[in-house]
Amino acid sequence: MVAGWLQRHQQQVITYLLAENRVLKAQLGGRRLRLTDTERRRLAALAHPLGRKRLKEMATIATPDTLLQWYKRLIAQKFDGSTQRRQLGRPRVPEEVEQLVMRMAEENPTWGYRRIQGALGNLGHHIDKLTVRNILRRHHMEPAPQRRKGGMGWVQFLKMHWEVLAATDFFTVHVWTARGLTRFAVLFVIDLSTRRVDVAGIAAAPDAAWMSQISRNLTDVHDGCLRRKRYLIHDRDPLFTVNFQETLAAAGVDVVRLPPRSPNLNAYAERFVRTIKESCLDRTILIGEASLRRAVAEFTDHYHRERNHQGLGNQLIEPLPAHSDADRRILTRERLGGLLKYYYRQAA
Q: Packing angle between helix 289-305 and helix 267-279, nearest 10 degrees?
């Protein structure tokens, strides 16, 4: 009697759970039920003793074949020793060393396998020259003789001559004056090594005489921005006259005229033009030449002391003394009515 009562009670529980599973499955609306690996293993272990015939009557979440497949996978995982296998051959070179090999090969086209091997040894990474060769081959990098044929890139050439190179260029700005809308030309010189910019002159109608005076100002022995430079890069603007070039040559500055339609060869000057226009000049209405000169002067001062430059490691060109005390109040220096802002901590 007790056994019969327990059997009837368990059958009632099973019947209820089957009905509950069917109701829950109907609530899914035909959507697939997502199970974790732990849940699959649990169902597979419970389903195996029941057998396929019983599972066909009871299984509602998965088919009997699926449950038995999970159980076989559970057994296979028990005897899977792939995680304990040791990798054959030499251990792979660390990612840091591989990146160093690629960097040295890209920055030094004349370096061969042994030269790169020696440079890595100086840094404490001792690898074989054949390993260097395999790394370069894996990244489709040619050996030194083929890389050397490619010549020197323009960026690498500029970096080799940073200290003696400067670039110059014009940009135009339209200003409201008493005569109406007037176009002004702004001539500037940029030091490629420091990114420092000097505004050489602003004129509504620049001519050869004005350019000759500008060349004398640039090469002045006391405060000329080209007094320590050897080369000046500029485009083929006709305002860079023969007299302008001769005056610079007499002061020891050789002029390098760029090919036609090659703004990328004067990229640093072109980038400054974009910066000053996007950040300042295109966002203001200039009335009179004085307002233009004030805006350019304020921006160049902000450009040198208050604007971080990504080409210089996100640093300032002329950093001011920093105050690292976190308790000091943060102040804001505004220029041109708040168009240009700089945040700093209050001095003691």
A: 110
CA distances from 25 to 39, 49, 280, 308 (A): 16, 24, 64, 60
For domain 160-312, the CATH architecture is 2-Layer Sandwich (3.30)
Strand ranges of the sheet holding 165-177, from the earlier edge strand across to the other edge: 197-203, 180-191, 165-177, 231-234, 254-257
Structure tokens at 120: 């890595």
Over its C-alpha atoms, the chain yields an Rg (Å, rounded) of 37
Average pLDDT along the chain: 84
5-22 tens-digit pLDDT? 777 777 777 777 777 777
Share of the chain above pLDDT 90, in %: 39
Phi-psi region of 231 (alpha: psi -120 to 50; beta: other; left: phi over 0): beta
Question: pLDDT for 297-317, tens place per residue?
Answer: 999 999 999 999 888 888 899
Residues in the chain: 348
Structural domain boundaries of the chain?
1-34, 36-77, 95-151, 160-312
Average the pLDDT over 43-57 and give the result. Answer: 72
**DSSP structure string for 228-268:** T-SEEEE---TTS-HHHHHHHHHTT-EEEEPPTT-GGGGHH
Q: Which residue in the block uniquely carries the two structure tokens 């974009």?
A: 274
- In the prediction, which pLDDT does 193 show? 87
Tokens of 315: 């640093």
3-state secondary structure of 327: coil
Of 182, 181, 241, 237, nearest in space to 209 by CA: 241
- What is the per-residue pLDDT for 324? 62
Phi and psi, residue 334, nearest 5°: -110, 140
Cβ(162)–Cβ(228) under 8 Å?
no
Q: What angle do CA 314, 190, 211 make, to 5 degrees?
A: 160
Q: Pick from 138, 140, 118: which is nearest to 129 by CA?
A: 118
Q: Tell me: pLDDT of 326 over 70.
A: no
Which 3 state secondary structure label does DSSP give 312? Answer: helix
- Residue 301: CB atoms within 10 Å: 14
This prediction has a pTM of: 0.60
Output DSSP code: residue 89: S
Q: Which of 300, 323, 303, 95 is nearest to 200 (CA)?
A: 300
